Amino acid sequence: MKVLVATSEAVPFAKTGGLGDVCGTLPVELARLGHGVSVVMPLYRCARYVGFPIEPLGIGFIVPVGTKTVAGKLAQSFVPGSNVPVFFIQQDQYFDRDGLYTESGEDYPDNCERFVFFCRAALEAIRLLELKPDVLHCNDWQTGLIPTYLRLEYERLARYRQIATLFTIHNISYQGLFWHWDMELTGLPWKHFNWQELEFYGKLSFLKAGLVYADAINTVSPRYAEEIQTPEFGFGMEGVLRNRREVVFGVLNGIDSSVWNPATDGLIPANYDCSTFEQGKAVCKAELLRQMGLPPIAQAPVVAFVGRLIEQKGSDLLAELIRSWAPDRAVRWVVLGTGTANLEKEFINLARLWPEKVSVRIEFSEPLAHLLTAGADIFVMPSRFEPCGLSQMHALRYGTVPLVRATGGLADTIVDCTPENLAAGTANGFAFSEPTVEAFNQAMRRAEECFQNREIWRKLITVGMQQDWSWRRSAHEYSKLYEFVVRRRLNALERQCP
Predict the structure, then answer these.
(1) What is the C-alpha end-to-end distance of the chain, expressed in Å?
(2) How far apart are CA 72 and CA 358, in angstroms?
């Protein structure tokens, strides 16, 4: 099957979050399964400096954006280590900037115009490059107008009529909302600015456009696919999703097992696998405590948090928990990340109050992230919502027991350490339901108690390390989804025939 992945970012060329990881890694795994896969994305300034050659193709084009026409060019590279082509949309006025979407923390004021152009250009690239995709896999709001244009403007062209579309939601809280007068920039008739199509509480929504016009929708975990159909997690889109629930699916993201592998990881002081983790993790734990400036400890766990210090990630709950535990418990806490100014200040203050027990780094360091994942005993993710999450999968692979709030992909990957799950051999971590400090505290107490029972702890680690969270598993699930959307598209065409 031929698949064109449309995305606003893909590693290593551009990344702000999980979207970039998915769209740079999944295509390679799909290609290994035998699919013909290519990627189309904007040519940002940062992509020119990552060290991989990007060649101009000598192909130019013009597309309408509102009342004007805008010229662009096409360039090409490959996902490193693969034969998956990456086609770049070059338009320096829109994309040759310091940031992808923001500058100094503020959205670019012309983001609507920029991604109207990208969506139109991506569809033109199909014709200009003579691509013949069976599936156009669109990702997040930046590509939401692609299925819309495909059905409203390109339907009459034979090259495009049979293309099926899959729209993936990586985080529904990002919706591409713009002033209603920006509808003019899309070039679409105003009749489509209504509550059933592109209008969302008086604004233009790129995300809603994708949800309405794609042949099928998926998000990055089965639980999150259910959650976003509820008012608590749907961010106002739950009605649209419930209306299309028969074509809403969830596929867990995967991890790059060549990068996150404790047996070969060059960023940790000792390599280990499922049979040698006790020795290897002991070395990593000692080095972690040394680098973080904490005294050695054997009889109490080291608890790690790696991620954004924001309320969505439950960082405020973690700060409260540390404040209540640090005075009279031996547990060590290591925190790595950046976030809102008030939470950064709170964690710095905790480290100052209890320097023997709490160590905080307000930064992001890939080597340190690997060391925390390998050297800690418990990895906490108390997220209020989490579409998928990758850090808990990294932790499982490294024999670091996750403690999570049971939401989204965290609920789909972590099986709580109950007596029943332990007996069944499925327990791989700890989970709590309510996003409160009380619930978090109870789960942490259970984890601390189990840590003292080495038989239980070894069992938890062994189960987690033996599980497969690679992209290979995810790619097989996407293959099934592609088959589904192609059948659905062909059925729709048959119904249109007299």
Answers:
(1) 28
(2) 52
